[in-house]
Structures are given as C-alpha cells and as structure tokens.
Write the structure tokens for this entry.
Amino acid sequence: MPEYFVVRGTVESGDKRGRELGFPTANIALRDQDGSLGDGVWAGWVRRADGTHLPAAVSVGRRPTYYGADGYRLLEAHLLDFTGDLYGETLVVWLGSHLRDQEKYSSAEDLITALKNDIATATQWTLAHPAASLPEPGESPLGEVRRLTT
C-alpha cells in the first residue's frame, strides 16, 4: 500500500534563491523543526486552492548548501511546468517518493545539476503515480506533516 506524507501550508516569501538558480519554489514553513519527517528531496504533487494538481520536486530541510545545520526547516516545492505567483495561497503537498537526502554542495553549478536530476526523477514518478490516486488529505493545522496511506 503506497504511503504519503502530506503538508498543508500557506506559501511564504523566501530568499528567492531557487528563482536565482532557475528553479522557483513555493515555500511553506514547517511546524516540526526537529525533523520527524526526514530531510530530503521528494517527488510529489501539489494541489492549489482552485483544486488543480501539479507535479512537483520538493525539498524538505535546512538548505545545507547555504545555511548548514542552522537553517530553518522549510518545505520548498518546485512545481513542474508552472509559472505564476503563489504567494499567500494555501497549498496541499503530497510527498510520495523520497529521492535522496539533503546534501551540501560546493558550488551553485553542482546544486543545479542535482536539481535537474531531481526534476527528471520526479517527473517520471508523477507520471507513474497520477494525482487521481492520491489519498484524501483531510484537515490539519498549517505546516503540520501527516502520514497517509492509500
């Protein structure tokens, strides 16, 4: 039975580093700063307020390349094939497949290479796991991570 983690949260403004690297993200603050959901990069889905689902590559963690172990834990969703402004919108994010752990990269170029690989893998995963198969997320406080099974 597939397992998902789900987070509901409002998109906040970040430091815009993802945009500078060519991978804009929707940033959602996490209540859990201890890490009950392990840090890493995930393939998943995002549901917008209007009900549309978009595939995503999602990073959860402290952004070690820029902040080391001291960064604020954050969910950053890069919506595939999407352009637009999501600030202030409440999204539901399903994390379906853990792709890799977070890593500290020695250069922006190395990080960009990893992000391109993550996006390719997330694209393949979402094609094999359509949004129609997602479990209902239910209600939860903003920024709370919950485990769901289908």
Notes: The chain has a mean pLDDT of 89. The longest helix spans residues 108-128.
